[in-house]
Design brief:
Strands 3-2-1-4-5-6-7-8 form an eight-stranded mixed sheet, with helices on both faces. It is built from 15 helices and 13 strands. It has two domains: 194 residues, NAD(P)-binding Rossmann-like Domain (Rossmann fold), CATH 3.40.50; 196 residues, Rossmann fold (3-Layer(aba) Sandwich), CATH 3.40.50. It is α/β, with parallel strands linked by helices and 420 residues long. Helix content is 39%, strand content 14%. It binds ligand SAJ. Ligand SAJ binds next to helix 8.
């Protein structure tokens, strides 16, 4: 069974798949990146990127220039396949594995005995087995590891990514990896693949354990963010500066309270806990309550703004930041977007009242905000000069660098503790 990989196919060229493809290519592997979005494929083949992530453009343009990275809309035969497609939630907080199934169906025809498949998409426990079952149904000529231990024709493993958007390129190489195989050989071969570009340690386990570990990592973070957010609400009512309280509490050698904010965004921390809830009905009261606490934060921020605007003739509110966190352009499930949506409905458009949005990482308002009367995207200085109330929602670097004198005379609601 081959333990080296000359050609690798990475299916899904998002903020994980593309850096992974480029990192493998930089180490001399011939990589074919596959994505259903033809514009993304064309852009990458020109050595360009569709994602704001430090150093990704340099990595991709170099890999394409050397001929080691190319993109296409369909997979080709390869020694290994890495699947990094979205696994969103359905409306009822259930895992949506349709992209994963579509990716498996795309690669089934080009699969051959001896190939390795690694799923990176965050998945509910048992998803890797489901992929093996699907493939076994489409390719009855091949043997798969969920049925025959260590003698199968195809090896299948699960290895979740844990890179932090904004630090992806560094963390992709430095972070340890958890690698779960449907059998031992699958895990070992997947570790061989990752050791091509990962300097962190590769920890081998079963597929189910690796799936659960990923969900546990993000659920742990969501619960602890909820604790920080609940503390911020308590401190507001008690007239205590929550930022000072958290900093002082964290002086304790065994306390590490996270940072309060306007809510939890992104398609990871806000999503993954629901995969655990779905897999263990009735057994996750803490995880569910934490989700509810974090989901209630945008409304809490809106109420604080409305309270500050009460009595103002025609309040003008500057909302700084739409991204779900600092220094990225990702607005997915962003609490800031929910805050702006509510303020636009409840303040903007009434007479001269208005809501000005500042987001340095976008050129136009997203669809869910575009066209709302009284809601405009403006530069930072213009927004603050024209505002009665300034709400900081994402702690982007330009906001941190703001001359505080510009805030004199304004009501400031700093949800990130940026201007303390
Ligand atoms: N947030 C807070 N307070 C905090 C930390 C985060 O309010 O103290 C908010 C952020 O503003 C943001 C949301 O939570 O809205 C999520 O941000 P994040 O930085 O916690 O996480 P992500 O979603 O950007 O990345 C997470 C990371 N997981 C962990 O840190 C355990 C990353 O390592 C994962 O790879 C990623 O999810 C993923 O793709 O699963």
């Amino acid at each position: 069974m081959k333990r080296t990989f000359e050609k690798v196919c990475v299916i899904g060229l998002g903020y994980v798949g593309l850096p992974t493809a480029a990192s493998l290519a930089r180490r001399g592997v011939s990589v074919l990146g596959v994505d259903t979005n033809e514009k993304t494929v064309a852009l990458i083949n020109k050595g360009q990127v569709h994602i704001v992530e430090p150093d990704l453009d340099i990595l991709v343009s170099g890999a394409v220039a050397t001929g080691k990275l190319a993109a296409a809309t369909r997979p080709e035969p390869a020694d290994a396949f890495i699947i990094a497609v979205p696994t969103p939630l359905t409306g009822e907080h259930k895992p949506d594995l349709s992209h994963l199934e579509a990716a498996a169906q795309e690669l089934a025809p080009v699969l051959k005995a001896g190939d390795l498949i690694v799923i990176e998409s965050t998945s509910p426990v048992g998803a890797t087995e489901a992929v093996a079952e699907w493939l076994a149904g489409w390719r009855q000529d091949l043997a798969f590891p969920h049925r025959e231990d260590d003698t199968a024709g195809v090896d299948i493993a699960y290895s979740p990514e844990r890179v932090l958007p904004g630090r992806v390129i560094t963390e992709l190489v430095r972070n340890d990896r958890v690698i779960g195989g449907l059998d031992r050989r699958s895990a070992e071969r997947a570790a061989d693949l990752y050791r091509i570009f990962v300097d962190g340690r590769c920890h081998l386990t079963t597929a189910r354990t690796a799936e659960l570990v990923k969900l546990a990592e993000n659920s742990y973070r969501d619960v602890n963010i909820a604790f920080a957010n609940e503390l911020s609400v308590v401190c507001e009512g008690l007239g205590v500066d929550v930022w000072e309280a958290v900093d002082l509490a964290n002086r304790h050698p065994r306390v590490g309270i996270l940072r309060p904010g306007p809510g939890v965004g992104g398609h990871c921390i806000a999503v993954d806990p629901w995969f655990i809830v779905d897999s263990a009905p009735g057994d996750t009261p803490l995880i569910e309550i934490a989700r509810q606490v974090n989901e209630a934060m945008p409304r809490h921020v809106v109420n604080a703004v409305l309270k500050a605007a009460a009595g103002m003739e025609a309040p003008r509110v500057a909302c700084l930041g739409l991204a779900y966190k600092a220094d990225i352009d990702d607005l997915r499930m962003s609490p800031a977007v929910r805050v702006v949506q509510a303020l636009a409905k409840e303040i903007a458009g009434h007479g001269d009242a208005g809501v000005m949005v500042v987001e340095p990482h976008i050129k136009a308002l997203p669809d869910e905000l575009a066209g709302i009367p009284g809601l405009v995207l403006v530069p930072l200085e213009e927004a603050i000069e024209g505002a009665d109330i300034v709400v900081l929602l994402a702690d982007h670097r330009p906001f941190k660098a703001l001359d505080r004198a510009m805030l004199d005379g304004k009501v400031v609601i700093d949800t990130r503790g940026t201007w303390r």
